[in-house]
Amino acid sequence: MEPGTAHAKEKCVTGLTHGRARGRASAQRAAGRLGACFLVALCLGAAAPAEAPEVLPLLSAPGARDLRVEELLEEPPRFRFPPGERVVFEVRYLGIPVGFVTKEVARIVSFRGRRIAHLVGTARTNAFFSALFRIDDRSEAFVDIDSFRTLQTATRTRHGRRREVYEEVAFDWETHFVHVLEDKRWKRTREYSLDFGPDVYDAFDVVYAVRSMPLEPGTESAVPVYASFKIYGLEVPVEAREPIETGPLGIVTAVRLAPRNTLDGESQGDGRGQVWLAADGRRVPLRVVGWMRPYTGFRIGAIRAELVEYAAGDPSWEALAPQPVPPRAGVARTERGRPVWRAPREILLARGHLGIDSTDTRHPDQRIEELVACGELPVLRRYFVRPGEPGRSGGCTPVEETRPQGAKTASSDTRSGLRDAP
User: pTM of this prediction?
Assistant: First the structure.
């Protein structure tokens, strides 16, 4: 296999783009990777060799306490996937094994007044394919199990010998802004902020959201998804129920989905795939097949991922039977991937407290640079300061002095990216 082909393949395996889309063609490539690799984005994670290296977690929650199922029965959460649930997929290209995709629910914890699921995905090529082009990715997310909303994600990608990217994404549900830090080793570090509109899913929580939807043949759901500095629409039509055979589960009745994505209401033709989920229980992902077109005139097909390992997780969670959860919201109108909407008064007030001007039309990078230059008004630095990194100082008015009496302040925990729950 040619290294160039392998490089294009890895863009499908990771299911994420870490560069900002430039122009219409770049936006379509990013959208193609979101839609064409939905299950590999549905199992966001990993292609791993037999012996994975020891790694440190990307997200931490100091002082978090593991929750027992008995503590959840009085107020059942919307997110009902048990700790310890783990799916492993073997990924093949043109019938050749290239690695394994893994996704798991690592923990369900109580942290700062919230009940949170810690999700982990990894992506590593096998020994043979790594000799051609190595992929070693790790992604993590904190998801609020009561609201089914992603709070923060962190991703570290290593492609080839030198290309390494670290990205943190924090969703601020008070201001409805998503804050992004992208650190490209040997290149540059960028910070970015985007109004995500009335509601949004992330590549992590949309996986479980789709698994939780009422999936009846002939129906279709559509949800907004953040990816690569834009808001896309993900349409999930349910085509049919049919039996399929899998290694770990045998013959299973499955629902077949044909997810596709849109940008500004227009369908993107840079990728397409089919996904099979178990029809009963927790809708275990079983199989994905698809193709993608990362570059104009260059199409990659014959991509296939099969479930090869499944762990059901904590058996005590059987008391929390899965319940269908409709999507929180549909896809709002967007222009160039930016939502067009009128924010409610409480959101405008929250933005005002943090010094965010919702009507500012300047380049977002410029606006954010002005805000984070003030150490006491850290729109992004409250999430992204590394341990031991000196804070920024500036001549800004402290946040506490700009807030009304009794108003909440942002959490000072810069590593977890989580605010205290109201």
Answer: 0.74
Q: How many domains does the chain have?
A: 2
Do the Cβ atoms of 94 and 320 come closer than 8 Å? Answer: no
Strand partners, 149: 144
Q: Is residue 182 part of a domain?
A: yes
CA-nearest of 309, 335, 261 to 34 is 261
Give yes or no: residues 362 and 277 share one domain: no
DSSP state string for 216-264: -TT-EEEEEEEETTEEEEEEEEEEEEEEEEETTTEEEEEEEE--EEEET
Q: Are residues 327 and 351 in the same domain?
A: no
Cα–Cα distance for residue pair 169/333, rounded to 1 Å: 23
Domain range for 360: 341-402
d(CA 144, CA 96): 38
Q: Do 320 and 360 have their domain in common? A: no
**Rounded CA separation 111/418 (Å):** 9
Token duo for residue 78: 């919307």
pLDDT digits (tens, 9 = 90+) for 344-390: 999 988 888 877 766 544 334 444 444 444 433 333 333 333 333 33
Residue 297, Cβ density class (10 Å: 0-12 exposed, 13-18 middle, ≥19 buried)? exposed
Residue 73 lies in a domain: yes
pLDDT digits (tens, 9 = 90+) for 232-283: 999 999 999 999 999 899 999 999 999 988 899 888 766 678 999 999 888 9
